[in-house]
Write a structure and sequence with these properties.
The chain is of the alpha+beta class. Strand 4 and strand 5 form a beta hairpin. Helix 1 crosses helix 3 and helix 2 packs antiparallel against helix 4. It has a 5-stranded antiparallel sheet with strand order 2-3-1-4-5, with helices on both faces. The chain contains 6 helices and 5 strands; from the N terminus they run αβαβαβαββαα. It folds into 2 domains: 125 residues, Ribosomal protein L10, N-terminal RNA-binding domain (Alpha-Beta Plaits); 43 residues, no CATH class. InterPro entries: Ribosomal_uL10, Ribosomal_uL10-like_sf, Ribosomal_uL10_bac, Ribosomal_uL10_bac_type, Ribosomal_uL10_CS_bac.
């Protein structure tokens, strides 16, 4: 289907806006996936807060210009699906990696974070990043540990005094 110039400009603007606010990007080859599989992938993307778009490579190259994902330009060859993490840096990588486990036809080409291009073999690195809630939980645990230890130390002092008094009482009774 031929796109009119206005349609192309709209697509470029939409992808550029999404890329400007994204935290990370994953480029994958979707060749061989059925329509129902693509629909399922799109559904998962919506649920996980990932911007997912099949874009012509020339339009994608234009759209990523001026964003931190400009480094992806050379990987935009062949059938390409673009996944952008909007809220959680690892969301797109986790979603694509999980979906690729069940569908071997979905192949990761590259990913980018902070303007740095990574190869497809680095997807585990990004997918294993904790979500925001997990990171906040870990931070709370780290902040809580010294306070808990201090409280235990303070609780231990009266216990030691009670044990000393009991030992002195036992010694005098003997």
């Amino acid at each position: 289907m031929a796109l009119k110039l206005e349609d192309k400009k709209a697509i470029v603007a939409e992808v550029n806006e999404a890329a400007s606010g994204a935290l990370s990007a994953v480029i994958a080859d979707y060749r061989g996936l059925t329509v129902s599989q693509m629909t399922e992938l799109r559904k998962q993307a919506r649920e996980q807060g990932v911007y997912l778009k099949v874009v012509r490579n020339t339009l994608a190259r234009i759209a990523v210009e001026g964003t931190e994902f400009e480094c992806l330009k050379e990987t935009l060859v062949g059938p390409t699906i673009l996944a952008l993490s909007i809220e959680d840096p690892g969301a797109a990588a986790r979603m694509i990696k999980d979906y690729a486990k069940d569908n071997d036809k979905l192949e990761v080409k590259a990913l980018a974070v902070g303007g740095v291009l990574y190869g497809a073999n680095e997807i585990d690195r990004l997918a294993k990043l904790p979500t925001r809630d997990q990171a906040l939980g870990m931070l709370a645990g780290v902040l809580q540990a010294p306070v808990t230890k201090f409280a235990r130390t303070l609780n231990d002092v009266p216990g030691k005094i009670a044990r000393v008094v009991a030992a002195v009482k036992d010694q005098k009774a003997a």
